[in-house]
Amino acid sequence: MRFAGVKELKHKTMDILKQAEKEDIIVTAYGKPKAILHHITEDDLADYLIENDPAFKDRVEEAYAGYRAYGGMMADDIIKRLESRRGRGKI
Questions:
Q1: Structure confidence at residue 91 (pLDDT)
Q2: What are the mean pLDDT values of the chain's consecutive 10-residue runs (91 residues total)?
Q3: Nearest-CA neighbor of 28 among 46, 10, 50?
Q4: Radius of gyration of the chain (CA)
Q5: Residue-range definition of the domain harbouring residue 30
Q6: Which pLDDT score, from 0 to 100, does residue 88 have?
Q7: Which of 7, 34, 4, 41 has the alpha carbon at shortest distance from 19?
Q8: Are residues 28 and 48 in the same domain?
Q9: Exposure string (b/e) for 21-60, b if CB count within 10 Å is 16 or more?
Q10: Is 48 contained in some domain?
Q11: Cross-strand pairs, 26
Q12: Is residue 88 in a domain?
């Protein structure tokens, strides 16, 4: 991990972006950290956009609240139930 000041970033943007493919770069202004440059691929971009979408987060929280309010089953319980049915030939 390396540090780059705003002035260096301004003058050497492409070089710093190429370096960010190999390691994270912390961008500083007046000696204080302001941002991190982290390399992502096109595939990573889709995941990043979904994970950081406030509307998506709200939908997940609403779904979880509904699950908590109306009950539901844990994955382990579903697996156990399916395994017990398998033994009785009812799947």
A1: 53
A2: 96 97 97 96 91 91 86 83 76 53
A3: 10
A4: 23
A5: 2-37
A6: 66
A7: 4
A8: no
A9: eeeebebbeeeeeeeebeeeeeeeeeeeeeeeeeeeeeee
A10: yes
A11: 3, 36
A12: no
